[in-house]
Amino acid sequence: MRFKAGRREALALLAAALSMPALARGAVELEAAEAGGSDGATVGRTGFTDLMPDFWAVYDGTLGGDLPTRALAVWQRFFQTHDDVYRLAGYRFKQDDVARWLPGFDGRAAATRTVHLRFARDYAGNLGRFRSALADFSGRASPVTLLPSLMHFDAHLQPNGASLPLFFGPDAIAYYHGADADLDVLFSHELFHCYQGQKNPAMCLDPAAPLYVSLWMEGTATYASERLNPGASPLHVLLDDATLAQADGSSLRAAARAMLSNLDARDEATQSLFFETGHHGEGWPPRVGYAVGLRIARSLGTAMSLPQMAALPAQRVRETLAQALQRFG
Length: 329
Description:
Elements: H1 7-18, H2 21-26, E1 48-50, H3 52-62, H4 67-79, H5 83-88, H6 95-106, H7 109-133, E2 144-146, E3 155-157, E4 166-168, H8 170-177, H9 183-199, H10 201-204, H11 211-227, H12 234-237, H13 242-245, H14 249-261, H15 268-275, H16 288-300, H17 306-311, H18 314-326
Parallel strand pairs: 1-2, 2-4
Antiparallel strand pairs: 3-4
């Protein structure tokens, strides 16, 4: 899960939502149907709600105007119109937020359109392949919405007590991953987090989970995205982060030693050293936990299936990771 702030809290809420009886009673099963439609029209029966056609209609109508007028129009006619959806995602954007975002977005609009069209075309097929690989996965908990995120997230889970909505922001996807982003990898990574919460809610319920839980959750989700997309490049699997993908053995070993010494750490400052953009320790790049976790999961994958990884109890996870980090190399 490419969480920014509150990543651990979101994982805990994810598990809580998946354990709620309301999901079994009221959530709607996602439909995996063939994608259709075109730029400017909501795609039907693909398992997600597409707000991008509404956005493009407003955005395109403002082109050529001055920034204050454009920002007001986009905010009023799109973000205010869909304020209820953004509230479900945990956001409330103001006119000033749109005004700050719009100039940079203008230069990325073409790339964002490309991501939008590819998402609409590819999502249903990827969901179908995910279900084929993990037959007990339930999509009931995670209705999907595609909408501009003002660069706040490429993908974001926000439990609401009755379902676990999954939101994708094509503007951030285009920025962080490029117009040619491997969307299959992104889909698989995020859906595997939903699957983890479904299979192992007890481990996810801790609102301040220890570092070993974060390492396991992110490492196995990264591994799942690789395993389910065997043609994907290491760069795409590792968050399209060239520095992380090129990290050498010595930096990974240094991070592994540090994580072994902090397996039970629950504070955000320690966790950020290994999992957050802009944070790093001595001798390793930001988000190194994804690369270390991926390498560990690869080594375990010869004897452990993805469902087994998703369901492994917390104590077994800690024991397994302690052993793997001790012999990491």
